[in-house]
Structure formats: C-alpha cells, structure tokens
Amino acid sequence: MSKLILVLSYLIACLILNLIMCDNCYQINSRQLPHYKLVKSNARSNQLILSRKMVQNVNECRNFASAKKALAFNYGTENDDHELNIGNQNKRRTRRMCQALECPEIYNFTTLVKDKNYKYYSTYPSIIPTGSNFTLACIPKAGIFVFSSNNLNYSQAQTACQKINASLAHIISEERTNGVAKYILPNTPTFVGLSNRNDEKIWQNEFGESLSCFNYRAWGKGQPSHSKGCVTLVQQLEFGSFWNVVPCNSVLFFICEISPMYKYLYSQKTQNS
Ligand SMILES: *[C@@H]1O[C@H](CO)[C@@H](O)[C@H](O)[C@H]1NC(C)=O
Ligand SMILES: *[C@@H]1O[C@H](CO)[C@@H](O)[C@H](O)[C@H]1NC(C)=O
Ligand SMILES: *[C@@H]1O[C@H](CO)[C@@H](O)[C@H](O)[C@H]1NC(C)=O
Ligand SMILES: *[C@@H]1O[C@H](CO)[C@@H](O)[C@H](O)[C@H]1NC(C)=O
C-alpha cells in the first residue's frame, strides 16, 4: 500500500514538473506568432514573394502568411467574383490574392508600388532608425537584424541594442544562425543573445527563454567550453557557422534583433496598464 502511495506521489511530482517545463516553453511558441498590421492601402510591396494563394478574406491571408513565416504580406482587394452553379442555386464566392513576402519594407517604402487593388501588411514599421553605427539586414522567415560596427562587452552590447528598441539576437534556429552568419566577418567572434551569466546554470536568450526549450544546437567543436559565459557566433570557411563561448567581458562586435511592431504595442500596453 505504502509502495503504491510512493509510486503515485512520484508520478504526480513528475507531472507537476512537466507542466512547469511545458508552460515555460509554451510562452515561446506564442511569442513567435507574428502580428501583421495594415501599413499602407492602395499599395503593394515588391519584396520577394515566398508563396501566394487565393483567399476569401484578410484573416485567411494572415493565417497563410503566418504559416509560411512571412514577415509581411500583400492582400488583394479587387473583387474576383465567381458564379458557382450548385444545383439551381447561384452562389457568389469572392476570391482575393494573398502574397506572403520574405521581407518587409524597412527603408521608407523604397520597394513599395502604388496599386489600388492591394493593401500592404507588415510585422515591422516601414522605417527603422538605427543611426550610423549599425547595418540593417532582413533574414527571411526570421526577422530584422542590425550589425554593429563597434566593439563592446556583452552588457554594453545589451544596452546598445536596447537604445534602438532591440535586443541581442536570438539565434536558436537553423534559419537564424545560418541567416545571421552570412552578414558577419569571417573568423570574427560576434556576440549574440545567448548567455549563462548568473548562477542559474542554464543557457538562455535575451527573452529569458531556456535553450532546453529548443531542439536546435550549433555548438562548435568542444563547446560549450565553459559552464558559464557569453556566446558568440563564428563564421569560418571550412566549418561553416557555429556557437562559441567566451568570457562576457570580451570586447567584440555584436548583433541585435529588432522587435516586430506587435512587441512595441505589447510593451506600450503593459506600461500603460
Ligand atoms: C520617407 O520618404 C518620404 C518620401 O520620399 C520623405 O518625404 C520622408 O522624409 C522620408 N522619411 C524618412 C524618415 O526618411
Ligand atoms: C557610434 O560609435 C562611436 C564610437 O565608435 C560613438 O562615439 C558614437 O557615440 C556612436 N554613435 C551613436 C549614435 O551611438
Ligand atoms: C522605441 O520604442 C518607443 C516606444 O514605441 C518609441 O517611442 C521610440 O521612438 C523607439 N525608439 C527608436 C530609436 O526606435
Ligand atoms: C563592460 O564594461 C563596463 C565598462 O567598462 C563595465 O562596467 C562592465 O562591468 C563590463 N561588463 C562585463 C560583462 O564585463
């Protein structure tokens, strides 16, 4: 009997632990859902099209774009009515074009064209002011990143990113690590948003999300070399791109990630309430 109680309490303890772990990781999945805002009417962006589909309404287009991890989309507004002859009833069906885009307009609408049959929706604002010390780049399906031309230590880099409404880049996915690595100098360790600085003994990104919530790893050979430290991204001709641990007081280039628009909205809301 007491054995049964022991087994039962063990199972319950596991269940509770699991729920806590799942809950942590659940927040990540919901964070990554992009929110598209109407940015311009009577216009269509000429950014590369990831995928296109006929839809019935803008919400269907949103869901389609989201499933494709598009950072923006064009939504057709011209009616394309079809008469469907089903039995004796004529049913009208409206179909509209949905174009999921790889990248949004971020340079003050330089690739936007006038088109009265479209509306342009995006997860990012159309101008991103970063100043002269940074270079902007869009990584398709991942987001907008900025590359510093200054060398700073990890905590200074965190502050520099915050000043432009950004955070050190989240790189825990193949798209992110390989996408971002294309823009860094070869053989030049560059700070990204992954560290293990306190006594928590977990590697986490700048959103407080534990590495254990993700399947992807890009540790270099023999990495992580220390149980504490800050992570750099390294790009080498022979080994490709990988993560390397360095002391957090190293002074290096760094990469920030610009928050999509919905994040501004979210932080404004929480500030106001
Ligand atoms: C964006 O472009 C418009 C029209 O070309 C121009 O008037 C405006 O000053 C630009 N804004 C910024 C912030 O560059
Ligand atoms: C750009 O970097 C230089 C140092 O390289 C610094 O003095 C300057 O304040 C930076 N500018 C901005 C806008 O942060
Ligand atoms: C950062 O976001 C705040 C709040 O939305 C905004 O007021 C501010 O202008 C932004 N700063 C930069 C540099 O984009
Ligand atoms: C980064 O440099 C600043 C200024 O020198 C210093 O106060 C801070 O402790 C350093 N941070 C790290 C993580 O070494």
Automatic annotation (TrEMBL):
It comes from the Eukaryota. This is C-type lectin domain-containing protein. It comes from Frieseomelitta varia. Keywords: Signal. The keyword Signal applies. Residues 145-257 form the C-type lectin domain. Residues 1-22 form the signal peptide. InterPro entries: C-type_lectin-like (IPR001304), C-type_lectin-like/link_sf (IPR016186), C-type_lectin/snaclec_domain (IPR050111), CTDL_fold (IPR016187). The lineage of its organism: Eukaryota, Metazoa, Ecdysozoa, Arthropoda, Hexapoda. PROSITE patterns: C_TYPE_LECTIN_2.
